[in-house]
Amino acid sequence: MEDDLEEIKVGLQTLLSKHDDISKNVSICNTALSNNGNSPKSSFIKLPDVSLPEFHGVIENWSDFKKQFDSLITNNSVLNDTQKLFYLRSALKGEARTFETSEDTFDSLMTVLIKRYENKRVIINSHIMNS
User: Fold this and answer.
1) Which of 23, 68, 75, 96 is a plausible cystine mate for 92, CB 3.0–4.6 Å?
2) Which Pfam families does the UniProt entry name for this protein (predicted)?
3) Nearest-5° Cα angle at 45, 39 to 47
4) Rounded CA gap, 97 and 54, in Å?
């Protein structure tokens, strides 16, 4: 029940964040129009939402996953650690899910994943096995 509540809370905060972003864009556009009196030469284009990257436990995909996840979630100052943990758990699939525990915090789970998938010995063994 707590997980459902947290999921609803994250969803609402995401919607509010999107609403705030749209309001800021409208405000910027209106400010630009009032500052120079000209109409915009191009119109705003709604880009598709960026989907959360998934990680299935394939070591060769870790680096790309981590970079994307860090850009979208870890470095997002709007999100708190509980929300980041929710997004991290939802991004983990397959073998990668085996590292989760019910006592995890965002930092503890990310640390375990980094220790596992940024382990040079494991990376070298993976490259040797795939060669």
Assistant:
1) 96
2) DUF1759
3) 160
4) 11
What residue spans of 1-131 are helical by DSSP H? 2-36, 59-69, 81-91, 106-117, 120-130
Rounded average pLDDT over 92-103? 94
C-alpha to C-alpha distance for 15 and 94, rounded to whole angstroms: 29
Torsion angle, alpha carbons of 14, 68, 84, 61, to 10: 130
pTM for this entry? 0.60
Spatial neighbors of 30 by CB under 8 A, at least 6 apart, are none
CA distance 22 to 97: 35
In the structure encoding, which two tokens stand for residue 130, read together?
């795939």
Nearest to 61 by CA among 116, 117, 2: 117
Report DSSP state, residue 92.
B
Q: Are 89 and 95 in contact (CB under 8 A)?
A: no
* 121/65 Cα distance (integer angstroms): 19
Percent of the chain with pLDDT over 70: 77
